[in-house]
Design goal:
alpha+beta; Zincin-like; disordered N terminus
């Protein structure tokens, strides 16, 4: 399986915190409602992305998919949810298509985001 994003541990400044668990709850709900449980249930989701070039980032490392949220840019639950849905589309494209669109905002990713909008996933978020 190709790895299209390469990150080093220097991007992450903080350890996983127990108060990040709300992200797991939201991810599981979104996975069920909008992705028919097709996203990996073992995805590690944290608020420890310290690289200020990114609001959030998705990558594969040590046998797990990760979604890292940058707390600096995600100070509200609404912003965290928007970014979690955004990153879930990246993950969905990667696990269902396994192509080079994983780290891009190309047509398949855009179609995923449009589908989420059509299904009112963003209704209370924007």
């Amino acid at each position: 399986m190709p790895l299209l994003l390469f990150l080093t541990a220097t991007l992450f400044a903080k350890p996983i915190r127990s108060d990040d668990r709300h992200l797991d709850v939201w991810y599981a709900a979104y996975n069920h409602e909008y992705f028919q449980d097709s996203l990996p249930k073992t995805t590690v989701i944290t608020r420890n992305l310290a690289d200020d070039r990114f609001m959030a980032q998705t990558f594969y490392e040590n046998g797990y998919y990760h979604i890292a949220i940058n707390p600096r840019y995600n100070e509200s639950g609404k912003t965290e949810k928007l970014n979690l849905l955004h990153e879930s589309c990246h993950l969905y494209i990667f696990v269902t298509h396994e192509d080079d669109e994983y780290d891009d905002h190309g047509p398949k990713w855009q179609a995923c985001m449009h589908r989420l909008a059509d299904e009112n996933a963003f209704e209370q978020l924007w």
